[in-house]
Write a structure and sequence with these properties.
Blueprint (H helix, E strand, L loop, with lengths): L2 E3 L7 E2 L18 E3 L21 E2 L5 E2 L5 E3 L3 E2 L6 E2 L4 E2 L3 E2 L5 E6 L2 E6 L3 E3 L1
Antiparallel strand pairs: 1-2, 1-3, 4-5, 6-9, 6-13, 7-8, 10-11, 11-12
């Protein structure tokens, strides 16, 4: 069942697209995000104590990534807004984890960029 949730921490849920109406929410008047979960947890993982579980970031093979790891690109990637293409097999050293389990920060070709973990393999 598709519904819409607020990612601001207020726990707002709506059956229709719109904006968060909770005045104390940091995302007040920001768009609600579409969620298609069946379990009612909206993609959040909680342990028995009710606290958030630590985020685990994995590469394309399911290997856990940590800050400072080296990875290799498994696909040619074109940098948006430019003609620069990073070739498959390019080694990236010293990645940094972000707040998103599907993305990592790194420096590649003199540019600070964000890479999706689905295109990376840990070395």
């Amino acid at each position: 069942m598709t519904h819409y949730i607020c990612k601001g921490g207020c726990g707002g849920v709506s059956d229709e697209a719109g904006v968060c109406q909770t005045e104390s929410c940091p995302n007040h008047y920001e768009l609600l995000e579409e969620c298609d979960c069946a379990d009612g947890k909206h993609g959040m993982k909680n342990d028995a104590a009710g606290e958030d579980a630590p985020m685990v970031v994995k590469d394309s093979n399911g290997t856990e990534l940590k800050d400072g790891d080296s990875v290799v690109l498994i696909k040619d990637l074109t940098l948006r807004g430019s003609s620069t293409t990073f070739k498959r097999g390019t080694k990236v050293t010293g990645i940094r984890l972000t707040g998103n389990a599907e993305e990592v920060d790194c420096k590649l070709g003199g540019s600070a960029i964000v890479l999706r973990t689905e295109f990376l393999k840990k070395v």
